[in-house]
């Protein structure tokens, strides 16, 4: 990683020097971290937007640095992906995310995470008796409810496919004026079903599946009609998918986390396309690299959610 302290020096940097530094940062193969803010001078202010992560203090930066040291391949891939996708359409950003995710699935950091999980005796995937997603039509409103409450709505392949089927109703029927997405039980979604991680035969097949059954892309295509109600755990896919919605309403107990980098991966449910469009590339990189958990109030301040409402009102 490259760490630059912008709190001292650089006040008299020439414009050409700043432009050269910005080009270099855009092409840097590793994460770039900056200490400081715009008060450090005009040169620092001109450079800040080009870094992957910006922090006010060493203490704020340390969890990011520790995560980069733990999984440097995933960290480098993540920041390169976020830089690339910043100017891309949602479709192109999702394709890029899937390609990077698939590549990392074949990498040593994900293999090490899988090996540690197997040593702990992980359970293999099993099918639930109830539908993974409940689809209900009420006049011009379509209600989609993630329905694996005993697993905190872990986002399985079955749930992904069922959610895509439900969203096809909205995309194919203009009389659907509103789509409400929510989760049954104590959480909106605890993220990808870990029992299914690494279960596909090869990364190429995994990429093809994500390219053809992408709930994030479908949510984006009807985002102006989608209201997402979230509560409890909103982890991984549980944070990435709601960010595509036109409006996200959160209960005060909601919390948000992107844990994929610690597994040797990047967000794979569309988060590198959806979350930066709500909170910016640098905040997304900081959350994804550190795996930091943020509460509903912080998510509201960042712009990851649009409104806080108590659980009783959400159920009503």
Strand order of the largest sheet: 4-5-6-7-9-12
How do the helices and strands follow one another from N- to C-terminus? EHEHEHHHHEEHEHHEEHEEHHHEHEH
**Would you tell me the structural class of the helices and strands?**
alpha/beta
Distance between the termini: 48 Å
Known CATH architecture of the largest domain:
Alpha-Beta Complex
Name the CATH class of the largest domain.
Alpha Beta
Q: What is the number of helices? A: 15
Query: What count of domains describes the coordinates?
Result: 2
Radius of gyration, CA atoms, in whole angstroms: 20 Å
Query: What value does the average pLDDT take?
Result: 91
Low-confidence stretches: none
Question: Within the CATH hierarchy, at the fold level, what is the topology of the largest domain?
Answer: 2-enoyl-CoA Hydratase, Chain A, domain 1
Q: Tell me the name of the CATH homologous superfamily of the largest domain.
A: 2-enoyl-CoA Hydratase, Chain A, domain 1
Number of strands: 12
Describe the protein.
By secondary structure, this protein is an alpha/beta fold. It folds into two domains: 2-85, no CATH class; 90-315, 2-enoyl-CoA Hydratase, Chain A, domain 1 (Alpha-Beta Complex), CATH 3.90.226.10. It contains 15 helices and twelve strands. The strands form three sheets. It has a six-stranded mixed sheet with strand order 4-5-6-7-9-12, with helices on one face. Strands 1-2-3 form a three-stranded parallel sheet. Strands 8-10-11 form a three-stranded mixed sheet. Strand 1 (2-5), helix 1 and strand 2 (32-35) form a beta-alpha-beta unit. Helix 3 crosses helix 13, helix 4 (72-85) packs antiparallel against helix 13 (281-290) and helix 7 (157-172) runs parallel beside helix 9.
């Amino acid at each position: 990683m490259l760490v630059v302290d912008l709190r001292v020096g650089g006040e008299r940097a020439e414009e050409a020097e700043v432009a050269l530094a910005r080009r270099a940062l855009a092409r840097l193969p590793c994460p770039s971290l900056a200490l400081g803010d715009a008060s450090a001078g005009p040169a620092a202010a001109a450079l800040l937007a080009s870094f992957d992560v910006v922090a006010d203090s060493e203490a704020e930066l340390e969890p990011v640095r520790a995560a980069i040291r733990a999984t440097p391949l995933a960290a480098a891939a993540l920041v390169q992906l976020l830089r690339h996708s910043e100017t891309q359409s949602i479709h192109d950003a999702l394709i890029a995310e899937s390609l990077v995710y698939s590549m990392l699935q074949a990498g040593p950091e994900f293999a090490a995470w899988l090996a540690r999980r197997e040593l702990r005796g992980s359970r293999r995937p099993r099918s639930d008796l109830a539908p993974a997603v409940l689809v209900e039509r009420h006049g011009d409103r379509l209600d989609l409810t993630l329905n694996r409450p005993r697993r905190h709505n872990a986002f399985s392949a079955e749930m992904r496919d069922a959610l895509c089927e439900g969203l096809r109703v909205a995309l194919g029927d203009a009389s659907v004026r509103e789509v409400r997405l929510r989760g049954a039980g104590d959480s909106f979604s605890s993220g990808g079903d870990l029992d299914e991680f690494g279960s596909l035969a090869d990364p190429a097949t995994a990429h093809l599946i994500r390219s053809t059954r992408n709930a994030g892309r479908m949510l984006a295509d009807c985002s102006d009609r989608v209201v997402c109600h979230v509560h409890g755990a909103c982890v991984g896919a549980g944070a990435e998918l709601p960010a595509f919605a036109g409006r996200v309403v959160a209960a005060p107990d909601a919390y948000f986390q992107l844990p994929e980098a610690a597994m040797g991966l990047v967000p794979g449910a569309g988060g590198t396309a959806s979350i930066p469009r709500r909170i910016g590339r640098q905040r997304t990189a900081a959350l994804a690299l550190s795996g930091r958990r943020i509460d509903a109030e912080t998510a509201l301040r960042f712009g990851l959610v649009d409104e806080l409402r108590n659980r009783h009102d959400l159920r009503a």
